[in-house]
Structure formats: structure tokens, C-alpha cells
Amino acid sequence: MPSEKGTYDNFRVLVNGKPVEVRDFNNILVPIQLEANQEATVEIAYVSQGMDKWFYKFGDKVIAVNNFTMKMTTNFNDIDFPENTLSPSSKTKIGNGWELQWSFTNLLTGSKLGIDMPKKPSPGHLASQMSFFAPISLLFFVLFMFCVIRNISVHPMNYFFLAASFFAFSLLFSYLVDLVDIYLTFVISSIISMGLVVSYMRIVVDSKFAFREVAISQFIFLVLFTFSHFFKGLTGLIVTIGSILTLGIVMHLTAKINWDDKFRSKNEKENQDLSVKP
């Protein structure tokens, strides 16, 4: 059997369509008596479940495989093949899945056939990834929103509450995802976090700034950046592209700013104004 810990339902051995009794499942031997030039069809079948990967192994070492054909029909579109497995000879799209076929006439191989089953997003792993990238999202969110273009004065305590509201997304997502569907959890966490930040900045600055700069930038750097984690293998690329675009926009918007004047203290500015008066 493929695995000692596996579960095999409706196991059967058929010879020319007739069932054959099997007594020793550790070493299945089926004697078949054939006349000269007579052929027999042997069918071995079982039903199993709960596997992340499926393999068909020819043997433990390099082995010769002659006149071999295997067809596999999947009911899912997201197909992938594990490392060190042979690719199918042909594949055909059918409905919601694929028909895969391996055909070999005279093969010498130590590899096996296999396919990766599609995996649902792991809530725990996804939540930890989102929390890990949250500081990066917050950095670009603050950088974009307070890029000194608007001359808005915000106290460090305002930044603290802003960051806390921003991180409320990761905290709520981590604990709610075990109770609610993962995508619904994402929507709920996004709405609550954006509601906290926008309503707060509406009081700190004004409604126009809160609903325009704050809401748009938080949607980009929190919602979109975080949603990129649902695309396996593309998260880093999406975050990198978004970061580069953000950097380019901020650079162009602040290119003509006199940074010496921006970072000069208020007292220095007042003293300079007094020194030039007659």
C-alpha cells in the first residue's frame, strides 16, 4: 500500500471484471491462470482523501517502465507538479479541471509521477505574513500622506494613535480569522481599521484631508498591500512594485521643496524674520 498510515475505502481487486479475495494487504499476490495467448485485465482500485500531494511511484530505485499509460482527471484548475516528478506527456482543459496523461514506451527512470493538490490559504501563516509586512505598509502610508506637501502639523501622539489604528487590522484579522471566513475577515478588518483612521484624522485635520489623502492612501497601503498576500509567490513582487511607485511619486512631489527651510526650527525662522526687519 502507498502508506501504512493511509485510509483506503472500497478497496478492490478485479480480474476481468470479477472480484478477487485479498487476504494479505502487506504483500498483495493475485494468482491468475491463463491459456496460451490469453489476456486478462486486472483492476486495482481504492478511494482515499486528505493528501496534499499525490504520487505514483514506479519503484525505490531506477527501474525500466515499458508501455505505460496513465490518465488523471482533476476537478480543479490550479495544477502544479512537485519537484523530481515527470511532467505529463499531454494535458487537456476540461470543464473545471484538466485531463493529464503520461505515456511511455520504453522508459528508464528513478523519478515518479505526481501532482500538488490546491491548498486553501492558511489563516495562521497568512496572519503572520500580514503582521510582518505591516510596518512597511505603515511607513509608506505615513510617508505618502505626510510628505510635507500640505504643511500639516501633526503631533507625535497623533502618529501614535494613527499607527495603533493601522495595526488594529492585523490584530483583529489574527483573532477573527479562526471564527469567520478568511475573505470576510479581511473585509471586516479593513473597514474597521480604515474607519478608525479616517474618523480620527477628520478631527485632527479636516474632513477633506481625511477622506481624500488618508482614505485613498490607507486603501492602497493597507488593503491592497495586504491583499497581495493572497497571491502565492507574488506578494514580494507586488509590494516591491508598490513601494517603488510610491517612492517615485513622493520624489516628484517633493522635488522642489527647500528641505533646509522645512527642517529649520520655528525659533530659527522667527529669528530670521526679525533680523531682516528694519
Question: What secondary-structure arrangement, pairings included, does this model have?
Answer:
Blueprint: E1 9-15, E2 18-19, E3 42-47, E4 53-57, E5 63-73, E6 90-94, E7 97-109, E8 112-116, H1 123-145, H2 156-176, H3 182-204, H4 207-227, H5 235-253, H6 259-262, H7 266-275
Antiparallel strand pairs: 1-2, 1-3, 4-8, 5-7, 6-7
Helix pairs in contact: 1-2, 1-4, 2-3, 3-4
- The low-pLDDT segments are none
Chain-averaged pLDDT: 79
Number of domains: 3
In which order are the strands of the major sheet placed?
2-1-3
Defining key terms:
3 domains, three-stranded antiparallel sheet, 8 strands, alpha+beta
Structure in words:
With about 280 residues, the protein is of the alpha+beta class. The chain has three domains: about 10-45, no CATH class; about 50-120, no CATH class; about 125-265, no CATH class. It has helices spanning about 125-145, 155-175, 180-205, 205-225, 235-255, 260, 265-275; strands spanning about 10-15, 20, 40-45, 55, 65-75, 90-95, 95-110, 110-115. Strand 1 (about 10-15) and strand 2 form a beta hairpin. Helix 1 packs antiparallel against helix 2 (about 155-175) and helix 1 (about 125-145) packs antiparallel against helix 4. The longest helix is centred in the middle third of the chain and has 23 residues, at about 125-145. The protein starts with 8 loop residues before the first strand and ends with a helix.
